[in-house]
Amino acid sequence: MTEARTTGESTAPVEARRTALETEHHRLVGLRRDVLGEVSDEAVPASGATGGPGRHPTDGGSGGEDRERSQAVLGQLDQQLRDVDDAIGRLDRGEYGLCEVCGEPIGAARLEALPASRFCVRHRELVERGMGRAGEPIGGAGPVALP
Predict the structure, then answer these.
(1) Which fold has domain 14-46+61-135?
(2) DSSP alpha helices (H): ranges in the chain?
(3) Each residue of 26-49: pLDDT tens digit?
(4) What pTM, to 2 d.p., does this model score?
(5) CA distances in angstroms from 3 to 10, 44, 102, 129, listed in the order given
(6) Residue ranges covered by each domain of the chain
């Protein structure tokens, strides 16, 4: 079986990584389908103006808040799906398991916990604070020296 590029403490078979990513993709698609079903159910009120199935007009909250919450969850699921699909693309290109900032291997434990990881632990924090690929700040203000 073909081995993936070095990803830290170990090299894992490409098919095992692909299987994990595809399993995560299918799990996220299922969750997304469930949330979309809930949004559809919320859009069709039960008899009367009760705000939805099982709701009484005097219940706290509103259908609008529920829809907003569902939309936020859908946004998060969509981002996670993009991340997993991007990871599958990196796997296909032989770039999976390498930090997008420094090119060094991402630790095997991190990839086990977060299979769609794009960054090593050191660079994840820099990216979250607004540093882009290869140490450039988001917005293209020029290169920044990384520690």
Answers:
(1) Four Helix Bundle (Hemerythrin (Met), subunit A) (1.20.120)
(2) 14-43, 63-93, 108-113, 121-128
(3) 999 999 999 998 877 766 555 544
(4) 0.65
(5) 10, 51, 22, 34
(6) 14-46+61-135
